[in-house]
Amino acid sequence: MLDLLLSYLPQSPGWLAHWQLIVATAAVFNSVQNFVTLKLTRRIYNNVPMHTVTSLQARTFAVWTLTSAVIRAYAAYNINNKIIYDMAFLSYLIAFGHFSSELFIFRTARINPGVLSPVIVSTTSLIWMFTQYEFYVRT
Q: Where are the transmembrane segments (predicted)?
């Protein structure tokens, strides 16, 4: 049974592909949460009146998160494909830019676990992907 489960995991060398799959899986759960409730979304955007974080905003955020999950899942299984690798890298850059701008430019969020988590994941992923580019994408 364990061999069957392991056969579904990415088969590339290194751990980056597995990381991509973990992040993609977490993003799917986050998307579902955003479709179902505003509770956790309001924890992220916690520096604005509660009524301004709407269901529409949460669903839009869910679609973005699901899109990034698909890109990162593809990257997990195609980590050596330059185009997919670059798309995954850019998806982390967009996430980092979004959460950083909400914290420091628009000030709709204050530092808390809900905001720190995607900042840490995107920063870690960006550094890891940048430093390991030649290992995974042999140009």
A: 15-36, 83-106, 113-131
Domain that holds residue 40: 15-136
Report the number of distinct structural domains present in the chain. 1
**139, pLDDT greater than 80:** no
| Mean pLDDT along residues 112-129 | 96
- Do the beta carbons of residue 24 and residue 77 sit within 8 Å? no
pLDDT attached to residue 1? 85
Segment 27-35 mean pLDDT: 97
In a domain, 3, yes or no: no
Q: Does residue 10 belong to any structural domain of this protein?
A: no
Q: For the chain, give the number of residues.
A: 139
Q: Work out the angle at residue 34's Cα, subtended by the Cα atoms of residues 27 and 36, and round it to the nearest 5 degrees.
A: 125
Give the separation between CA 57 and CA 73, rounded to whole angstroms: 24
Single out the residue of 110, 120, 88 nearest to residue 20, CA to CA: 88
Is the residue at 115 inside a domain?
yes
Is the overall model pTM greater than 0.85, yes or no? yes
- Strands (DSSP E) contained in 1-139 are none
Cα(28)–Cα(32) distance, integer angstroms? 6
